[in-house]
Amino acid sequence: MNDNSQHWLITGASGLLGHPLVTALRAGGHAVTAIRSTHPVGISGVREIALDITHGAAVTRVIADSRPDVIVHAAGLTNVDECERDPDGARKLHVDATRYVADEGARVGAKLVYISTDHLWDGTQAMVDEGVPTYPINAYAHTKLEGETIALASSGTALSIRTNFFGPGRPWRKSLSDWILERLGEGAALNMFTDAYFTPIALDHLIRLLIDCVRLDCAGLLNLAGGERLSKYDFAMALATAAGFSGASIRRASVASFGFAAPRPRDMSLDTSRAAAILGHPLPSVAESIATLFDDTSKVRNAVPIR
Ligand SMILES: NC(=O)c1ccc[n+]([C@@H]2O[C@H](COP(=O)([O-])OP(=O)(O)OC[C@H]3O[C@@H](n4cnc5c(N)ncnc54)[C@H](OP(=O)(O)O)[C@@H]3O)[C@@H](O)[C@H]2O)c1
Fold it and tell me: Burial level of 27, CB count in 10 A (0-12/13-18/19+)?
């Protein structure tokens, strides 16, 4: 450990964001307590605890015992349609569990970072900033928003990060970029939406910037996403080009043509001006984020094999 090392507690530590975050924190010399549910974390030097965070007493005990300096609450049910089919389950995890984490975190004086989402509006506005009133249209968004409100109310130092990320996933949890690259590699057709927009950021960048934000003691709402808005179709094409594929198997599709259980916002793009002002630089472009997937020096990529 170095002089600036802190004790971080991460929920959702076996997930797409949580696992490489734990890896990066360990590499940076921090002490880490990793909370997961069904999947292992398995990182050397990390204290790993299997815990269902919807059980309040257990959450309280673990946080009270470990007394972390920083908590990143990244656990979530990211399957939007599953949340729609099981709104009570989504509520237990996104609302009740967030209350347990936030309350005990505040009691021990930990800085809380809540991982929120770009899914909080109806998708009729592009590039929403932190001041645009939310307008959730499905159970995932409603419950994530309630969790965010609880997290921010728990302490003046709490930070809520609204984002959308991609990068190398876990064997049981593939990211959008994993799925696209896999389909391209197999020569299989992909239907990608030309009418769904977002501002994605690579995990590599997001994790570095999240750690910077904690170092800067940033609080409140923060859009921490990519600096560039594009459609899911254009994202797949950009990824194909970077990976050396022609993109011929990528087909244009419309969100309206898919029978999702939950309504989807068409435009989820986030304005990242506040983050750029705090961090002192613009947020990464799509090309900069995609480049991390093919960069041999990427800590995240090297630490997290796709399969
Ligand atoms: N993926 C995105 O682009 C995106 C976009 C916007 C916001 N977010 C938010 O970012 C956060 C992280 O997303 P992600 O994609 O990294 O998630 P993920 O890969 O789906 O992982 C979810 C994590 O939550 C844990 N978990 C689920 N239920 C739990 C329970 N009852 N008790 C304890 N842990 C539980 C899982 O544990 P096990 O694996 O061990 O079961 C896993 O570690 C989520 O809160 C999500 O809402 C994600």
Answer: exposed
Whether residue 4 is predicted with pLDDT greater than 90 in this model: the reply is no
Residue 14 domain flag:
yes
pTM, two decimal places: 0.95
Which residue in 100, 140, 197, 233 is the catalytic one?
140
Q: Could you tell me if residue 22 is inside a domain? A: yes
Catalytic (active site) residue 114: no
Q: Quick one: residue 280, left, alpha or beta (phi over 0 = left, psi -120 to 50 = alpha)?
A: left
Q: How many domains would you assign to the chain?
A: 1
The set of residues, in sequence order, having a beta carbon less than 8 Å from that of 123 and lying 6+ positions away, is 137, 264, 265, 266, 267, 268
| Structure-block tokens of residue 251 | 């087909």
- What is the whole-number distance in angstroms between the Cα of residue 237 and the centre of ligand 1? 27
Per-residue pLDDT band for 98 (boundaries 50, 70, 90) equals very high
DSSP output for 60-103: HHHHHHH--SEEEE------HHHHHH-HHHHHIIIIIHHHHHHH
Mutate to test the pocket of ligand 1, among 10, 11, 17, 114 (most ligand atoms within 8 A of CB): 17
Find the CATH number of the domain harbouring 113: 3.40.50.720
Output the CA 18–ligand 1 centroid distance in Å.
8
Q: Which amino acid is at 141?
A: A
